Amino acid sequence: MQLRPTTAKVREALINIWRNELAGAVFLDLCTGTGAVAVAAHHAGARLVVAVDSSAKAMRNLAVCANREDFYTLRGTLPGCLGGLKTRFDLIYFDPPYASGLYLPTLAGIINHELLTSDGELAVEHHVHLALPAQYLGLTRTRQKNYGDTVLSFYQMTA
Questions:
Q1: Any stretches that span the bilayer, and where are they (predicted)?
Q2: Which domains can be identified in the chain, with CATH numbers?
């Protein structure tokens, strides 16, 4: 699939939205691509950053920042690789290729493998014409932010 990096506008908006939550957080970036969001989360104070992508090239490009105690990469295909993550995350960012069909299977994997903490938040980037459900398995959408053709849908665990 062709790489579609998160625009600087959306990346900056996400980091600003999560500014207070990032300090000390355990952060997961799914479909990290260039790794710009993972790097920004690390710079914003995340205690641990895990960046996941299926591309060997993406993982090589992130090697400069990653493979440290507080920032590492995992090469794997979603949703199958989620079972290999043994950490629970405070914040999860998921930005797959828009036409990949990965949205619902990966959300199910996040729930099934209990990757999101009970008070954590998941942000899903998607095209404005892709409607994601307001509730899915154990997730409830709490808000949406629109940036042109791009939407960030935020989910938390259903109480």
A1: none
A2: 8-157 (3.40.50.150)
Does 102 or 58 have the greater pLDDT score?
A: 102
Say if residue 97's pLDDT is above 60: yes
Which residue has tokens 């600003």? Answer: 16
Residue type at 19? Answer: R
